[in-house]
Design a protein that fits this description.
globular, two-stranded antiparallel ribbon, 225 residues, alpha+beta
């Protein structure tokens, strides 16, 4: 029996393609554009979501991959053999290059800024209850990609390292421990608020008080992501 193909949201598909071109900064009119884009997607996907390995270093399970010709077909390039309908597995591989676990997660979490955008509902955060589901080295995105966000590498237990930062206070390379993330008080619905790093321990009263009585003018930098 032939495998049933899952319908693809065309608008989200176009958004995924546009975002990959934007973040990779690849000019699709250049001679090696699709080869460069293919290499970028493979590298970023494997960086964001490292494959599990055996003790000898060999990969436990090969991931989905993608070819230059598939990308040409997805972008409707005239040199492609024929047009190809999107495959969910391929789209998930492409979405991982942007920091999303799979295609479904991308469709659910990616938000465009518009007049109806809800800052709080659109916030992609995480608390310590979800830390146990992360693999060491896994990349998570906190914030509102692509408008304001940080990509964090999970270092184990409650530790993270900033690997990418856009319009946030943290610099790449920063390491910290936390029990989760929350939003500072929203005073203007049109402006993205600060993302706060919750302290790991209850006895860190000064930091907890700074969060509860947040004031951007005199808050400690430790709580600002």
């Amino acid at each position: 029996m032939a495998k049933k193909r899952i319908p693809i949201d065309k608008e989200r598909f176009e958004t995924l393609k546009n975002e990959l071109v934007r973040v990779s900064n690849i000019d699709l009119s250049s001679d090696n554009a699709y080869s460069d884009l293919c290499d970028y997607i493979k590298k970023q996907s494997n960086t964001n979501f490292p494959l599990p390995k055996y003790e000898d270093g060999s990969v436990i399970q090969q991931s989905e991959t993608i070819s230059v010709d598939t990308l040409r077909r997805y972008w409707g390039d005239k040199d492609a053999d024929k047009e190809r309908k999107p495959d969910v597995g391929k789209l998930s591989f492409m979405a991982r290059a942007l920091g999303y676990k799979d295609w479904e997660t991308f469709c659910h979490e990616y938000k465009q800024t518009n007049t109806d955008f809800d800052i709080e509902k659109g916030f992609n955060g995480m608390d310590y209850f979800k830390f146990s589901s992360l693999l060491e080295g896994e990349i998570v995105c906190i914030g509102w990609y692509p408008q304001k966000y940080c990509r964090l590498k999970f270092l184990g237990e409650y530790s993270f390292e900033v690997v990418e930062s856009y319009r946030m206070k943290s610099e790449v390379g920063r390491k910290f421990e936390t029990s989760g993330f929350r939003l500072a008080q929203i005073s203007d619905k049109a402006i993205f608020p600060e993302v706060l790093i919750e302290p790991l321990y209850e006895y860190q009263e000064d930091l907890w008080n700074a969060i509860e009585n947040f004031d951007i003018k005199n808050c400690p930098t430790e709580i600002l992501l």
